[in-house]
Structures are given as structure tokens and as C-alpha cells.
Design goal:
The structure holds two protein chains of two kinds. Chain A is built from 37 helices and two strands. By secondary structure, chain A is mainly alpha-helical. In chain A, a hairpin with a 4-residue loop joins strand 1 and strand 2. In chain B, strands 1-2 form a two-stranded antiparallel ribbon. Classes of the chains: A mainly alpha, B mainly alpha.
């Protein structure tokens, strides 16, 4: 176990310890203990920066299921390090903040447990090299974020939001899984590193395009791209620290990570470029356009996150063009787009994290997030106002904040792309900068809305009755640190450029010779060029449109309520619920006999079908051993008992006849010299009979059934078929020769496992995994029986339905 | 409900000792002769069930204050725990080892780590069996 594994596993370890120890600790303590996990991990990860920026790549492999190519391998390069630092860095600040934000009355141990799970899963996503391990962590982020969003599960909206995010992200995750499996079938390796190294072989494969689309669906659902973005605003029902963490800094960026990570594989393909850039731009526009109409501060931020994610996505798409050219001076222009994407990713995490915490503070102190009820907080909460101002102006792309730098690079990229002659860019290409520019105007407008509506003007009468004051310092510290970083990055952007982005560029463009040239020098002042003009245009038009807002907001009512994406989602969900409900009711009749019919019908069709179609039925009577007269006697007893079972009417006789069958089987084991099996069978039979006797008086009388002749006949046919199938299988396995018998392996039980009893060495040594899982199954079955009976008893007592 | 079952109670007092001894014997004879964790556990569990049938549940729970759900849970933890244990010795998951050791008073004995695993199995079987039977018969 090396340190890299420990980085991923540490959050899980603590998450597992919290439920054990939380009773011994005071509620405050848990948060502070948890605080040290991301802090230590962050410090640990910063020590990697010098090594990684020298072009080093750190990888470790721990063999897990090598026969399937599934290994727990970690991989730290520039790209994953950026994400790792964001996850732990923002994580530290968020945990610090939530220590002040959440009240002690909340079930904090749940909260921090989920948060740690989430953190570990995110670290697993970015540092895993194996596709399957990656996928497991990927889905774990969905599950843990579901738990976090539904943290206030007594609220209906929280539950609905959690379900929505889970439904959408997990559906995308399944697409991703299929994509990964296709990738595996094409390349024959589960290692992302190796897949990237063998890119050339893949691109002409017929599965290449389907794989590309499936992986993008996974990435788009996670990163809330249009039309999957609808889950993100609803996810804001989570506590604010969660929103700040999951929905600005980490989880939604996982999709961007996937796109960036797989750019070397799919980049250069026309479809990849158009999908990533196109969907990114649509999301950018749609998110910013819809953010303006929101009245809840958190909803504005949610839509702005959607739109900013679209911006980064479109930049990654533009950056992928470079791989179409191969390495040249021309392609350097496009690698700059990827550079800008990563730069904006970092910037976005800083200012959006700060803004979410700011909104949390306003909500916490004032009691509402509705901008129609807010106003005039500037003089009461000057520090919060400063945070909001810096965060928003950075988001709007104004100097002297870091958002300005990446925004200008974004404009450069969209302008450059129009000059190209490939991918039908010469005709459609002009749309790209136009959409980008219009979206930026809306971005500017909603930034103005956040700052001006919340902090300027007069305090509304219903709010002014409260005693308003600035938030406690502890709560302000985290967003303050973030806005200081916002400003620091503006003045020293090349520190990040050289130490963090440069190695990441090498991981996006592994075939390009030097990362040095792909790392542009970031200038705050780049002359009076087109980009600056665009920015000035954005500011002027933005202010004008903001002033005229009440005249044009009617635009939003153009789309009828029925056709909004949310309405479509709702109707799909309700429809599928009713359909699956009626479908389930049709076959889940509650009648045990019916269930047996399904089970046996499937058993017969699968097993008998396999034996018939694979020609496996070879019965050689000469090969069999001699039948003794004891055995014949036993057979007759069993036949007699089973025929009698059909005609017996009283329950006690049924139980006893069943017992006869069971004990006869045990006798068979005795005559075949299998004492272990005989013992087990005997004890099991005795215990089941005892069980029957115990619950005998609870069972209802057997009602005289009068089934129709067809029903009787069909049941008879099924029972005969089952019997026939079992007999055929029993006779055929003796001569089965499709694969080699493994029994010879077990004969060496004494030398291999040190035991003389083959049955037990199989159970305990050779096939111990089966035994272990059987034990677990047994335990779960026992718990199931226990809880079902207890639940029934409790329901009768209190008659409280779980609604 | 009081049942006059003097014969049953008297017999069970003796028989239970025999069944328990048999259970333990079966458990330890495991690896080389018929027996093992599953059977041993079943026999021990059925002894407990027999006690419950003969005497009432309250009496037994007073004399034998185990929470059998916890017993089952501990068994599962033990079984999975031993399998993970091998990872710390850089061996694959579930690797078992054995050897001959001389123990004072008992002489040379064959000891194997499978026994711990089997003990987990046995505890799970006992716990689950008794839990199911108690919960079914308690439901009145």
C-alpha cells in the first residue's frame, strides 16, 4: 500500500469510523476531525506539484482481479492533480465553513459521513487508471451526492431533487459503463493509460463512434449539460455547503474530467468536436439565459454553474481540434483553448465556491434567498458584500479578477475557430463566437442581478424587523480565502500556468512533443484587440439590458409550460411509474403458486433448452454403476411419498411426507458414502420440521381449491417437465465432456490445503469465496425474516404507514 | 400457556449436553473428517432451538443472554475478516494456511486458519437459525 492508495482510501476509512465513534464525541468535534482529512490530503497533494510539473507521472498498481484486467491502479498526472487539489482544497474550506453553517441539531454524523464518502469517491474518479474502478467511483459520487442532496429528507423538494439528480446521472453512468466496455473490447485493456497509448488502433473500429457518443452522454449528464442540466438547479435543495462543494467545485466537474481525459482518444474526430463544443455552447447560452429569470439566489447560481460548465466544455471541444492537425504551429492555437478550459475550471471553482458560501451566509443571517425580498444589505454586511462583488465580477469576466483572464482566452478561442476550413467550420463557424458573446451578456446581467438586487436599494419591511448583522468570522473565512485567491490568480496567473496547467496539457496532448510551447504566457493586458472589444460590448449591452429588464423578460413565457424540459421529465417519470406499476401488479399476484410457476418455467426453458441446443445430453447406461437393492427400496419410498404428497389434504401429513423425502435423500448420501452431506441434510431436515411445527398454529387452514382443468393440466405439465429436466441433467452430467472435470484438482486436498476431508477443503479452502458469500447471504436472509416479521408486528401496533 | 411435559424437560436436560458436545466435536473434526463449521453450527443451533421448544423463550433468554442477531453479525465479520487478513501478508484474498504445532497438554496438533473462517461460518449459522426461529415463534 503506497501513499497514493492511502489518499483515496483515507476519506472512506474515516467515513467508516464515524458511525462507530460518533456517540463518544460531541457534535462539534466530528466536524473538526473531518476538517483535517481534506486539509492533510491537500497538503500531501501539493507536495506532488514539483514532481508533476517536471513532467513526472506517478502510477501504482494493486492487483485486484487480474484475470479480468481489473486492478486498483492509481495514476497521478497533471490533469488529475488539478482535480485532486480542487477536491481537497475546496473540501477543506467547505468543511470549515459547514462547521459554522450547520446547526448542532442536525444529524451531523450523517452529513460528514456522506461528505467523506463523496470526497473519497471523487478522488477515486480522478486518480483511478482502471476503467472499471473508475466507473465504480463514478457511480459512488452519484450515490453519495444523492444522500447529500436528500440530507433534509423531511422536505419533499429535497427528496425530489435527490431523485432527479440520481435518475439522470446514473442513467448517464450506465451509458458510460457501456462505452467503457466497448472501449475494452476494442483495445483489450482496462487501463486508461494504455488505451491512450494505443489510440491509433481504435479510430477506425466500427464501435468507435458509438463508444464516443456513450462516453459523452455519461460526461454530459454528470456535468449538467443541455438537456440533462435540469437536475442541477433542483439539487440546490441540499444544504449550502453541499451545493458549494458538489455543484460548483467537484462533482459536476467530473464530466469535464472525462472529456479532458479522453480527448487524446477521441479528439480530432469531427463528431467529438461538434458534440462537445455545440452542446457546451448551447448549455452556456441556455444556462445564462435562464439564470436571469430566477428569483432565488441559489437558483441563479445553479443556472450560472450550468452555463459556466458549458463554457469549459466548449473550450475543451475547440481544444480537441488540435489533434486533427497533429503537432504544428497552427495546432498550438487550439491547444490554448484546452489551456483556457483548465484555467477557467480552476477560476470557476474559486469564485463559484465563494459565491455559494456568500449565498449561504445571506440565507443564514437574513432567512431568505429570494431576491424579491432582499435588498440593501451592503451597509449591514460589508464583508459579505465584498465577497459577492469580487465573486460576481470575476464570473462576469471583469478585471482585476481571475475570471477576466480566462474569459478573454475563451473569446480568443471562439474567434480563432472561425478561421478554420475543416469540420464545416467555414459555414457554421461564425455561430460559435456569436453565441458565446450573447451568452456572456446574459452572464453579465445575472451577475449584476445578484450584486445589485441583494445588496443595494432599501431593506424590505418584512426583513427589517429582524436583527441583521454581519456573519461570524468563522463563516466568512472560507469565502474570504477564496476571493483572495481570485485576486491573487489575476496578478500571478503564470504561477498556475507553469506549475499546474503545463503538466495537465501534457496529459491532454500526450503525442505532442513539448508542453512548454502549449503553455501560453497569460497576460492581463493584451492590447486593444477584438477580445477586449467584445468584453467592452458585453459590459455596455449588459448594463443597458439590465436597466430595461422589465421590458424584455416576457420572452421567458414564450415556451409553454407543457414543453419545458422539466415538464417533460416529470411526465416521463410519472408515466413510467404508472406503466411499471400496472405491469408489476399483473404478475406479482401475491399468490405463491404463481411464483413457483414462473420460477419453474424459467428453470425448464433455460436448463433444458441449454441441454437440448448444446447437444450436451449424452447418456451411456453402460457407464453407470450397479444399482443396489437398498437404493431401489429408497427410490420406491421416495416415489411413493411424492405421489402421496399430491393427494394429501391435511397440512401435518404434508409436512411429514416432506420429511420422509428429506430423510430418504439423507439415506442416499449415507449409501453413497458422503457423511458430510448426510449430516447436513439430516440436521437441516430436523430443523425445518421443527420450524414447521413451531409455526404450525399460525398457518391458516388449507382452503379446498377448485382450479379449472386447464390450470390443473398446465401445472401438471410444468411439474413433469421440471422432473424430467432434473433427471436429464442428473444423467447427463456423468458423461458431460464439454469441459474438463475439476474434481482431480480437489483430490490433492491434503497437499494443497492440509485437510483430508475433500468436502471441507472445498468449502474452506478451494472455494472459500463461495462459502463466504453464502454466509453473507444466509445472514441477510435471516435479517430479512427478522425485519419482515418485526415490521409486521410494529405496523399492527401503531398503524403508522411509511408515507 | 403451561404444558405438562416433565418427560421432555427431563430428557432434554441430558440430551442437550450430548448435542452440544457433538456440535463442538463436529466443528473441530472438520478439516480431516466429516464435520466442519456449517454442520457444527447447525447442530449447535438446533440444540438452542430444542431448548426454546422445551422451555419458554423468556427462561432461556434469562439464562443465555445473547442477542443472536449480534452473534450472526459477528460471524459474518469474522468470516470476511479472516479473508481480508491474508491481504496484510501480501497473499491473495482468502488465502488460508496451516501447520503442526505442539501445544502443552494436548501434544502435537494440526492448526489451520480455516478454523477461524469456519468459526465465522458456524456463528453465522447459529445466529441466523436462532434469530429466524425466535422471531417466527414470538409473533403472536
Amino acid at each position: 500500500m503506497t501513499i497514493e492508495f492511502a489518499i483515496i482510501l483515507a476519506p472512506f476509512l474515516l467515513a467508516a469510523l464515524i458511525p462507530i465513534f460518533y456517540r463518544r464525541l460531541s457534535k462539534k468535534m466530528i466536524g473538526w476531525i473531518v476538517f483535517f482529512v481534506p486539509l492533510i490530503l491537500f497538503i500531501l497533494l501539493t507536495t506532488y506539484i514539483p514532481r508533476i510539473s517536471n513532467g513526472e507521472v506517478i502510477s501504482n498498481t494493486f492487483e485486484w482481479i487480474p484475470s479480468l484486467g481489473i486492478n486498483f491502479s492509481t495514476y497521478i498526472d497533471g490533469l488529475s492533480l488539478i482535480f485532486g487539489l480542487l477536491i481537497t482544497g475546496v473540501g477543506t474550506l467547505v468543511v470549515f465553513y459547514s462547521n459554522f453553517y450547520l446547526s448542532k441539531k442536525e444529524s451531523l454524523h450523517h452529513f460528514y459521513c456522506y461528505l467523506l464518502l463523496f470526497m473519497g469517491a471523487m478522488l477515486g474518479v480522478v486518480f483511478s487508471d482502471n476503467l472499471m474502478v473508475f466507473y465504480a467511483f463514478w457511480e459512488l459520487t452519484s450515490v453519495s451526492s444523492f444522500l447529500l442532496i436528500a440530507f433534509w429528507h423531511h422536505r419533499k423538494a429535497s427528496r425530489a431533487g435527490a431523485r432527479k439528480s440520481m435518475t439522470i446521472t446514473i442513467s448517464g453512468g450506465i451509458a458510460l459503463l457501456v462505452g467503457f466496455l466497448m472501449l475494452y473490447s476494442m483495445t483489450d485493456t482496462m487501463s486508461i493509460r494504455e488505451i491512450i497509448a494505443n489510440v491509433g488502433e481504435v479510430s477506425h473500429h466500427p464501435l468507435f463512434i458509438p463508444t464516443l457518443i456513450l462516453i459523452l452522454i455519461g460526461a454530459f449528464t454528470k456535468s449538467a449539460q443541455f438537456p440533462f442540466h435540469i437536475w442541477l438547479p433542483d439539487a440546490m435543495e441540499a444544504p449550502t455547503p453541499v451545493s458549494a462543494y458538489l455543484h460548483s467545485a467537484t462533482m459536476v466537474k467530473a464530466g469535464l474530467y472525462v472529456v479532458a481525459r479522453f480527448t487524446p482518444v477521441f479528439g480530432g474526430e469531427m463528431l467529438w468536436f461538434w458534440l462537445v463544443t455545440g452542446i457546451g455552447l448551447i448549455t452556456l447560452f441556455w444556462g445564462s439565459f435562464n439564470a436571469v429569470r430566477q428569483t432565488d439566489l441559489k437558483a441563479i447560481l445553479a443556472f450560472s454553474t450550468v452555463s459556466q460548465l458549458g463554457l469549459i466544455m466548449s473550450l475543451l471541444g475547440i481544444g480537441s481540434i488540435a489533434l486533427n492537425f497533429g503537432y504544428s504551429t497552427e495546432s498550438i492555437i487550439f491547444t490554448n483553448a484546452s489551456f483556457a478550459a483548465l484555467f477557467h475550471l480552476i477560476n470557476h471553482s474559486t469564485f463559484k465556491g465563494a459565491l455559494f458560501m456568500m449565498v449561504g451566509i445571506v440565507d443564514h443571517e437574513v432567512g431568505t434567498r429570494d431576491i424579491r425580498r432582499l435588498g440593501g444589505l451592503m451597509s449591514i454586511m460589508p464583508i459579505t458584500f465584498t465577497i459577492a462583488l469580487i465573486g460576481c465580477f470575476s464570473m462576469a469576466g471583469l478585471p482585476p479578477f481571475n475570471g477576466f483572464l480566462s474569459k478573454e482566452m475563451f473569446f480568443t478561442a471562439v474567434v480563432n475557430v472561425t478561421e478554420l476550413n475543416i469540420f464545416s467550420l467555414s459555414s457554421l463557424g461564425l455561430l460559435i463566437p456569436i453565441v458565446a458573446w450573447i451568452a456572456s451578456i446574459f452572464t453579465f446581467i445575472y451577475c449584476l442581478v445578484i450584486v445589485l438586487r441583494t445588496f443595494t436599494g432599501k431593506i424590505k419591511p418584512d426583513i427589517s424587523e429582524r436583527v441583521l448583522h454581519e456573519a461570524p468570522f468563522g463563516m466568512l473565512l472560507s469565502p474570504l480565502i477564496l476571493v483572495v485567491i481570485v485576486i491573487l490568480i489575476f496578478f500571478f496567473p503564470n504561477v498556475i500556468g507553469n506549475y499546474m496547467l503545463k503538466p495537465a496539457m501534457a496529459s491532454i496532448y500526450p503525442t505532442f512533443p513539448s508542453a512548454e510551447e502549449m503553455t501560453p504566457h497569460i497576460y492581463a493586458w493584451h492590447g486593444f484587440n477584438l477580445e477586449l472589444m467584445m468584453t467592452i460590448g458585453v459590459v455596455i449591452l449588459g448594463i443597458v439590458l439590465y436597466k430595461l429588464m422589465k421590458f424584455w423578460t416576457k420572452v421567458y413565457n414564450w415556451i409553454p409550460k407543457k414543453f419545458t424540459l422539466n415538464a417533460i421529465y416529470e411526465s416521463v417519470i410519472t408515466k413510467s411509474e404508472t406503466i411499471s406499476g400496472s405491469l408489476t401488479n399483473r404478475y406479482m399476484t401475491g399468490n405463491l403458486t404463481n411464483y413457483f410457476v414462473y420460477i419453474y418455467a424459467i428453470f425448464v426453458s433455460v436448463v433444458a433448452g441449454y441441454f437440448i441446443f448444446s447437444d450436451a445430453f449424452i447418456w451411456n447406461p453402460l457407464n453407470g454403476s450397479k444399482v443396489d437393492h437398498y437404493e431401489l427400496l429408497l427410490v420406491f419410498i421416495m416415489i411413493f411419498a411424492s405421489i402421496a404428497l399430491i393427494f394429501v389434504k391435511s397440512r401435518i401429513s404434508i409436512v411429514l411426507l416432506n420429511g420422509v423425502l428429506g430423510y430418504s435423500v439423507a439415506f442416499f448420501f449415507v449409501t453413497f458414502r458422503a457423511p458430510d452431506l448426510a449430516l447436513t441434510q439430516l440436521v437441516v431436515e430436523s430443523v425445518t420440521t421443527a420450524l414447521f411445527l413451531i409455526c404450525f398454529k399460525f398457518l391458516p387452514e388449507i382452503k379446498p381449491e377448485k382450479p379449472s382443468t386447464i390450470r390443473k393440466l398446465s401445472k401438471g405439465v410444468i411439474s413433469l417437465l421440471v422432473g424430467l429436466t432434473v433427471t436429464i441433467v442428473g444423467l447427463a452430467v456423468v458423461n458431460y465432456d464439454k469441459f474438463e472435470a475439476i474434481s482431480s484438482y480437489f483430490e490433492d486436498s491434503y497437499t494443497l490445503a492440509g485437510g483430508k476431508n475433500i468436502v471441507n477443503t472445498i468449502l474452506g479452502d478451494f472455494r472459500a469465496f463461495d462459502t463466504m458469500l453464502e454466509v453473507v447471504v444466509l445472514f441477510i436472509a435471516g435479517l430479512g425474516v427478522y425485519s419482515l416479521i418485526k415490521l409486521k408486528a410494529r405496523k399492527e401496533d401503531t398503524d403508522i404507514e411509511n408515507k | 400457556m403451561k404444558i405438562n411435559d416433565v418427560i421432555l424437560r427431563t430428557v432434554v436436560k441430558g440430551v442437550i449436553l450430548i448435542i452440544l458436545t457433538l456440535g463442538v466435536f463436529l466443528f473441530f473434526s472438520g478439516h480431516n473428517a466429516p464435520g466442519g463449521g456449517f454442520i457444527g453450527g447447525l447442530v449447535l443451533g438446533s440444540a438452542v432451538v430444542l431448548l426454546y421448544i422445551t422451555y419458554d423463550i423468556e427462561t432461556i433468554q434469562k439464562k443465555m443472554p445473547f442477542d443472536f442477531k449480534l452473534v450472526a453479525g459477528f460471524g459474518v465479520l469474522l468470516a470476511t475478516g479472516t479473508s481480508i487478513g491474508s491481504l496484510f501478508f501480501d497473499a491473495p484474498f482468502l488465502t488460508q494456511t496451516d501447520g503442526y504445532f505442539t501445544i502443552p497438554l494436548l501434544g502435537e496438533k494440526h492448526l489451520t486458519t480455516v478454523s477461524i473462517f469456519e468459526a465465522g461460518v458456524a456463528l453465522t449459522v447459529i445466529g441466523t437459525l436462532v434469530t429466524i426461529i425466535i422471531s417466527i415463534s414470538e409473533d403472536e
